[in-house]
Please model this.
Amino acid sequence: MTMATGTTEGREANGTGGSGGIISRHGAVLFRIVALSALLLLISQIAFAWFSLNEFEKVLRPQLERKAEVVGRAVGNLVRYSVDDLGFPPERLVGVDAYFTRIMHANPDIDFMALLDAGGGVLSLDGISAEDFTTIDLSEAVPGATVPSSASEHVAAPFPISVDGTVVATLIVGVSLEYVSDRLSDIYLDVITVIVVSWLVTLEFMLFFMNTKLTTPLNGISIALARGQKGVFADRVVSRARDEVGLVTASINDLIHALQQKYDDFRFELHEVRSAQLDKAVVQRVQAVKNRVDARLRFSGGEDIRPSSSLQIRIPLFLLMFSEELSRPFLPIFISRLVPAETTVSHEFMIGFPITLFMFVAAVLTPFGGVLSDRFGARRVFILGAIPATIGYFGTFLTQGYLDFIMWRTFSGVGYGLIFIAAQAWVAENTRGRHMAQEMSVFVGAVFVGMICGPPFGGIIAARLGYEATFLLSAGLAFVSGLIVYSMLDNSMGKRVRAGTRLGISGARMLLLDPRFFAVTFLAAVPGKFIVTGFFFYLLPLHLNAVGNSQSVIGWLMMLYGLSTFALLPLVSRFADRSGQYPVLVGLGVGLTGAGCLAILPELGIPNPNVAAAISILCLGVGHALSLPSQLAIIQQAAARFHGAVGPASAISAYRVIERLGLVMGPLVAAPLAIAFGTAGAIVGLGLITLAFVPFYAFAMYLSRNRPGAAMGELS
Amino acid sequence: MTIGFSTRIAMALAVILSVGLGVTGILSIQTFERTLGEFLSTRFQFVVDDVRQRIETQLDLGLELSDMQNVPLIMDAYLRDDSQILTIEVFEETGTVVHSTDTSFVGDVVTEDWMQAWNESGDRNNWFLFQRDAGVVGSLIRDSFDRDVGSVALRYSRDYLDDTVRVHRSVLLGAGIVNVVIILFLALFGSLQVLRRPLRDLRDLNDSVRRMAARKFGADVDDGDSRLYDELPEYGDFARSVQEAQDLISEATAEVRRIDEEQAGRA
Model:
C-alpha cells in the first residue's frame, strides 16, 4: 500500500510545534538558500552587466563618429562640387538649410549641421542655436575628426572644403551624445530584461532543487514522526537520497523496522506460550497482554510514505510553458512564410488561423483534461499531454507547408490543453486545508515565469539558429517536462480521486447554479481575461508605439505585468489563505485592473504617457496577483462543496472554459472602441467596462454569503 | 559513498549560477551584436540613401537608370572612403545590375534573396539582409510617378562586426569566469553558513535515531538526545513514543515470559 502525501498534509501532520528546528522549519532553510542564491546571482549579474555595458559603450561611440565622418564627407563633396565645378560661391548657395534639415530628419543621430565661410562666419545652421554653436571650440580640431563641445551634448567634426588648396568653407557635423545615451538606455533596458529573465529561470531551478532535495524528503520524515507520535510504526518513508536527509530517513526506517521486529519477536513468544497452554484463564491473561500492546501501538497495515508537493509540478509546467512561449516573438512571421501564394482568403486570416486553432483545440481539450485528470490522476494526464506536445513541436520543426504546420500545431494544442489542466489538477490534488491560494500560486507562478522568460530566449535562438531550431528545442523541452513528471512525480496520486467525479451535465448544472462559481467565473474571471487580451495584448503595444517608444521600452514596460504578478503572488496568496477573504481579494483584483486603465485618461494629469501606461500595467499585474489564486481557491471550494459529485480538476476545467470567453471577447470589444475613440480612449473604455462588473460580482457574492460552505472554515 | 547535503547544494549552486551568468552573457552579447549591427547599418543606410537621392534627381531630369554616367563615380568614392564596404550596386526592377563598383557584376542578375528582400520592403524605403559573409543594405529607387524602378544595394563586410563581437565575447567570457569563481566561493561559504545548524541537527538526529534503535529497556536518554528533544519538539514526541513502545513491548514480553514460567513452575 502506498501513501502519497502533499506538502500541506505534511505541514499539518507536523502540527505547529517546533522552535526553529530543521524538520518543522525547513521552509525557512529553503527560503534562506534560495534568497542567498538569488542575491548572489543578482549581484554577479549586475556587476557583469555593468562591465559589459562599459565595454559596449567603448565600441558604440566611435561608430557614431564614423557616421559623422561619412555624412560630413558626403555633404562636403556636394558643397565642393557646387563651389568648384559649378562655380557657386559658398555664400550664394541656396537650399542648404533645407538639405541639412532633410539629412537630419533621416538620420536622428546627426544633431546639427553648419556651413561656415572662410572666415568662420555662419552661412547655414540647423539643429542648434547660434548661441550654443559659439560654445563649440573647433580651433584645435583635426579636420574630419570629432571634438567634444563645451555644451557636452554633442561631438562635432569639421570638414574643410578647399578649392585649389584654399579653404573656402567649412562644414561642421555634430553628433548627438544624447543619441548614444538613448541607445545605451535601450541596451540598459534589454540588459535589465536579461537579468530578470535569467534570474527567474535560476530561481525556478533552485526552488525545484531545494524542494526535491530538502523540503519534500523532510516532509516525509515529518509525517513518519507524526504517525510515530500516535504509536503507528507501520510505515516506511520512501527516499532515494544518500545525503544527510537520506541517512535520517534510512535510520528512521531502520528504527521502525527494529520496533516491528521486536513486536514480531514478542508475538512469536506469545504465540508459543499460548499454543502450549490448555488453561483458558492463562490464555486470556496472555491475550490481555497482547491487547494492551495493540491498543497503544500499531505495526501492521503499513504504507509507503511517498512525500509529494504541489511544487513538484512547477518545473515541468514551467518547461512546457517556456517551450510554447519560445515561438511567441516570431510565430506570425514563420506562418506567413508558409502561407501559399494563392489563397481564397486574406493573407492575414491565413496567418491568424493556426494561432486561433491552437487556442481553440486547447480550449476544447480543457474539459476532457479535467475529466481525465479526475479519473486517472494528474500525473498520467500530464504525461499523456506531453506526448502530442512533443510530437507537435517536432513536426513543426520538420514542417514543409501550411497544412503540415496546422496539423502539427493542432497536436501541440492538444498537449497544451491537457497539460494546462493536469498541472492545475496536480496542485489541487496536493492542496489540503487552509493553503489553497498559496498552492494555486505555484501554478500561476510557473505560467507567468514561462511567459516572461520564453519570448526573449525564443527570439535569440531564432535569430541564431533559425525558427525551425526553436521548435526543435521546444520539442526537447516538452519531452523533458514529461520525463520529469514520469520519473519524479508519484504514480499513486490518481488513486485518491474517486472515479465517478467526472463533470457530466448534472455536474455542470450544479456548478453553474452555484452562485459563487457563477460569480467568480462570469463576473470576475471573464472580465479579468477580457482586459488581458483587449488591453494588454492588443491596445497597449499600439498605444506605446503611438507615443514614440522603441521595441525595447515597450517590451520592458510590458514585462512589468508578469513581474509584478510573479513578485506579489506568494505574499498575496499567503495573506488570502490566512484571512480566508478570497471573494474580497478577487473583487479588489478585478476592480484594480479596471481602475488602472483609467490612468491613461489625459484628464488625470499624468504628464508622461509611459508613467501612465506603467501605472496601468502595474495595476493589471497587482490585480491579477490579488485575484487569480483566490479565484482558483474559490473554485476548489465550490468543488469541495459537492462532496465528490464534481472533482476539483473538472471544476477547474469548467472555470477555464468559461474564462476563455473573456479572452475571445477582449479584442472584439477593443477594436471598435479603438476605431471610435483612439487607442487611449479604448483603453479607458475597457477599464470602465471591467469596473462595471465589480458591483455585480460583489452583489452575487453578498447573496451567496450564507450558503452552505461559503465560510472558509467549513472547508478546511 | 554518500555526498553531503552542503556539497550537493554547493554543486547545484555552481551549476545554476554558472547557467544564470552564462544566460546573461549570451543575451548581453546578442544585444550588443544587434545594436552594433544597427549602428553600422545606419552609416551604410546613409550612403545608399545618398546614392538613391542622386539617382532619383537624375531620373526626374529624364535620364535612364543605365545612362547615368556619374553614379559609378559617386559609388566608387564611397567605396574608397570606407574599407568595410565591399560593393555598391544598382539594379533594375528585373534584378539586372546596371551599375556596380565591381564592373564584372554589371549585366548579372542579383540573387533571389535580394529580390525577395526588395519586394518585401513594401512601403519602407530601405531593406536589409544578413548573409553569412556580408550584410546588405538596400534602398528603393522610385521615379517621379512613384513607381519602383530598381534599388541601390550596398554589401558590407561582416568581418568588423564579427571580429568585434568575438573580441567582446572573449572579454566577457573572462570576466564571467572570474565572476563565477568569486560568486561560487561566496555561494559555498554562504550555503555552509546557512546549512550549518540544519545539517548539525540532521546529523544529531541521525545519531539519536540510531542510538534509539539500539536502546536497552529502561535506559535514560543521552544528553545530546535531550537537546534534540528540546530543539525539535516533534522529534521529542516521536522519541518518547518510541521509548514507550520499546518499553511496552519489553514489559509485555517479560510478562508473557513470567506467565509462562509461572505455569511451568506449577506444572
Q: What stands out?
A: Residues 142 and 226 of chain B are 92 Å apart (CA to CA). The first strand of chain B starts at residue 85 and ends at 92.
